[in-house]
């Protein structure tokens, strides 16, 4: 593996995606590299290259990584503060904010049905919070021989492709994001009263402006309950129409995981969902996950 430390310089940072470090995917989102070794801290120039590529492509795949919790946490910190499910346990530490996503039961055996069905619906992470997630990062630890893909939908391209009349219609509208609605919509267990009190429904712009690029994108998904100021049925119909439009194949990238992949994406302008296209009860699937806190959508 070639380390970026030996190659990056200030001239490579702008524009990052034109450097040989990252290879862009077809379409407007995504790029990959196998030229980084994240087991060591990045210097300032290398970190700038990665941040610029993330700004430009919104989804990055860094191949051949094997990071422990602390190293993954510290790399994610390059993009902002880590989201606050980092509860310190008596025998734990803040690195436990890096947690495991798995199809294994308590005995370590794969189960036939997913624990969390909502992962399989289009969403952007924590949009029901006042300050939703900025970035989500997953590292592949164990994978099935085939399948277990993750899909990403480009909400900027989807917005740009809307008819002008639709863009005028939705400009300025706000959709209410609700944990309680999501649990019902996805057939998941209802939230407790404490869950609802901690995260009551909140309205965010239906069209969000990216704080770094200034581009507009749809801000929708499984947490979107209804639209403020519209009759509930009309608002639901509009949200479903927009979601159907935005998740057409032409806007979607499907990531087919390889062992050692580190994948992270921009929740401000992408939707994502897991796919259950593998034998869950037969094959193990284990990923490590950490999330960077975002800002209030505008």
Number of strands: 15
**In what order do the strands lie side by side in the largest sheet?**
1-2-3-13-5-15-4
User: What characterizes the major β-sheet?
Assistant: 7 strands, mixed
Q: Could you tell me how far the N terminus lies from the C terminus, measured between alpha carbons in angstroms?
A: 41 Å
* Range of helix content: 10-25%
Helix segment tally = 8
Mean pLDDT: 89
Question: Which stretches are poorly predicted, pLDDT < 50 over at least 5 residues?
Answer: 1-18, 86-91
Class by alpha and beta content: alpha+beta
Overall shape: globular
- Element string (H = helix, E = strand): HEEHEHEEEHHEHHEEEEHEEEE
C-alpha Rg (nearest Å): 19 Å
Task: Report the sheet-strand fraction.
Answer: 15-25%
Written description of the protein model:
This protein has helices spanning 10-13, 44-57, 69-76, 155-160, 164-170, 179-185, 193-198, 232-246, and strands at residues 23-24, 31-33, 59-62, 99-102, 133-142, 150-154, 174-177, 202-205, 207-209, 216-218, 224-227, 252-255, 262-266, 270-274, 286-293. Helices cover 22% and strands 23% of the residues. The model is unreliable at 1-18 and 86-91 (pLDDT under 50). The chain is an alpha+beta fold and 298 residues long. It contains eight helices and 15 strands. A hairpin with a 6-residue loop joins strand 9 (207-209) and strand 10 (216-218).
